[in-house]
Amino acid sequence: MSFVRAAMWRGVARDTRFRAAHACKMRPYNSKLEAYCCHITPAPSDHDACFEDDVAVTMPPVIQRETPRMILRRALEQNTLAFGTLLYAVFGMALLWSFGETPARWIGSLTVAFSTFFLLAGLIAPLWVYPLIFAPVLAIFGGLRRRLWTQKIQILSAMVYCTIFTLTFSLIKGHLTEIVPFWADSALTQLDLALHFGTNPRDVLGWMSVFNGNDLSRFYLNSWVFFATYFPVLLLVVDDNAHRRRVFTVLWMACWVILGNVIAVMFMSAGPIFADLVATGTMRDHHGVLALLNDPEGARLLMIKQNLWAAYSGQSEMLGAGISAFPSVHVGMASVLALYVARRGVDFAQGPAIHAALARGVVIATRSVAILYVLIYLVLSVYLGWHYAVDGYMSIAVICGLYGLGGLRAGVLRRVAAPFMQEQPVSARSSQPSP
Question: At 183, is the secondary structure helix, strand, or coil?
Fold first, then answer.
């Protein structure tokens, strides 16, 4: 009986393999890639199922062996901020070592910088205000509360990475003038005049004198620095799309490094606010900014300028005291935040259950808010004298260009994969004989 039972099972197995192969061969495929995968599938086992005439026949999974390159790429995608911070910190320490700095100063500055999260948060509002705001929000939105709890390790780690990254940026920026001295202020002033038909853009903004200069300076610095420093942390909190978080984390790092280090050292400039201290011969062109500094409403602006110049000239030490005008990291980081807001609006509008009129309204609203946000920082950077107008133009162009290149690269990859993923026409499916 055991011999007969074994023979019966072997017959069933052969019939099962035949029916599976026949079903896989004759079925209408949704794509060329599906057909290709079906035909290269090995002999059937008891893992996956291939259905034909409502009879399930088990098929094995297609197991792809991961290469070291694939493993490294996945690790980079999952830990973009960590790897970027590590590389930047190593480069920064090597550069500081070449200038005679010791790792002890970097570590000492790091211990001070870890308190900046609460310091920067306090610049926006008193710390006791935050529990009053977030407690009701967390009580109402349970999903956000669970997200914060389940990702608490990732959020705390991102806070550490952002602190180390921006600290390294500040230390490098303080030594840029030792690599290249200030030389581009005169050229940037002339370029500003040429782009604006012989008029200094700062003179066009004279109507802003109706606002208090101290309040404008406070808003320009305090409202920006927290979000610019901890933008990847905010992404972890509010965004559950891993690809979108990775794209804007890379863009955030590029803004600090490419704008604030690479391009800055190529076009070293102090800015209009230092026209009376840097021998550029442009004091007459920036008389509006210099007049604001001598006004009581510009007292806060004057104090910050004096502190930065004292640190630059070696009279005092100040964390994050580097001077560099072109291009504007302020406007560049505002552009990163604006692109993110616009991207969220577009992604929301593409949802399956969104009405067309509502989708258009959301896209228009988010894009309008994004443009207005960038314009506010662009105008303030020029009016307060920290930057030339061309500094902001360059920052917007670079950030939008980097973002566009990322989208172009993704579009190329989609076009390459399209022949394998596109669906067959309905007529082609119906013409296939049924099994």
Answer: coil
Is the distance from CB of 387 to CB of 273 less than 8 angstroms?
A: no
Query: Tokens 């007459």 map to which residue?
Result: 284
Say which DSSP state 272 is in: G
Tell me how far apart the alpha carbons of residues 224 and 396 are, in angstroms, rounded to a whole number: 16
Q: Does 327 sit behind a cis peptide bond, omega within 30 degrees of 0 on the bond before it?
A: yes
User: What does the pLDDT average to over 259-268?
Assistant: 95
Cα–Cα distance, 162 to 80 (Å, whole number)? 12
- Which candidate, 35, 17, 45, places its Cα nearest to that of 420? 35
Token pair for 364: 């228009």
User: Does residue 369 contact residue 310 with C-beta atoms inside 8 Å?
Assistant: no
Of 266, 254, 275, the closest CA to residue 333 belongs to 254
pLDDT, tens digit (0-9, with 9 covering 90-100), for 28-78: 444 444 444 444 444 444 444 444 444 444 455 555 566 766 666 666 666
424: phi then psi, degrees, rounded to nearest 5: -75, 150
Q: What three-state secondary structure class fits 290?
A: helix
**Whose CA is closest to 270, among 313, 323, 314?**
323
Spatial distance between the Cα atoms of 58 and 21, rounded to a whole number of angstroms: 11
As a whole number of angstroms, the distance between CA 327 and CA 293 comes to 23
What tokens were used for 76?
């980079």
DSSP H or E run through 48: strand 48-52
In angstroms, what CA-CA distances link 352 with 241, 347, 355, 359, 363?
Answer: 16, 11, 9, 11, 15
Is the bond into 433 cis (omega within 30 degrees of 0)? no
The dihedral region occupied by 314, where left means phi > 0, alpha psi between -120 and 50, and beta the remainder, is left
Average pLDDT, the chain: 77
On whether the CB atoms of residues 148 and 138 are closer than 8 A, the answer is yes
Chain segment 92-108, per-residue pLDDT in tens: 888 888 877 776 666 76
DSSP 391-424: HHHHHHHHHHHHHHHHHHHHHHHHHHHHHHHPPP
